[in-house]
Amino acid sequence: MLSELSEHKTDAQIQEAVRSELQWTPDLDHSAIGVSVRDGVVELSGSVATMSERYIAVKVTQRVTGVTTVVDEITVQGEPDAADTDEKIGQQVSTMLKWYETLPGVAIRAEVHDAVVTLTGTAEWAYQRKAAQRSMQMLPKVRGVVNQIVLTPRQFPADTADRILDALHRQASLAGTAITVHAESGKVILRGTVSTLVQKHDAEQTAWKHPGVMELHNDIHVED
To answer: Where is the BON domain (predicted)?
Structure first.
């Protein structure tokens, strides 16, 4: 028997697909996660035990066909002894930041309150800023991360738009897509149409890797 993938899915089909994908993910307790869908926009609600699980739930949902946007309303369960939790998280954060101290142009500081980590300081690259946030999200007991790291100004080459477009064309996941790039004075705007939310995310991540990008607007449309 030959089965074919349908191009268009109803909200009910998307909801069922997201639930199935969450259940399929072994490192995620999906039992307390709610899923609702309207016009391809998925809202995740409920609670999970860690920030890492919250991150995984969003990423898993983004890769489901038919999903155009993910609204994350998941809460992370708190710990009974907040002071003790903050102290333990602070020790882990301090250890993690020692690695970033070895990177040139990176000066990151952190504060912990009620299991929420606030990152401040500077970094030269957007991927460094995102990596710092991601590493904190993966720590046990962390309920949230506030990323206030500022990107330091870098030279913005005149051919930035062309170089980003070339990088997009090299991505296998973006083959056949029609994306345009506008770049000026550190600001980049992505426009066009893609088939999935994952492709939109991949395009954004690729553009952020270019040196000198200080601000990025992802106006790419995901087909219904």
So the answer is: 10-78, 85-153, 156-224
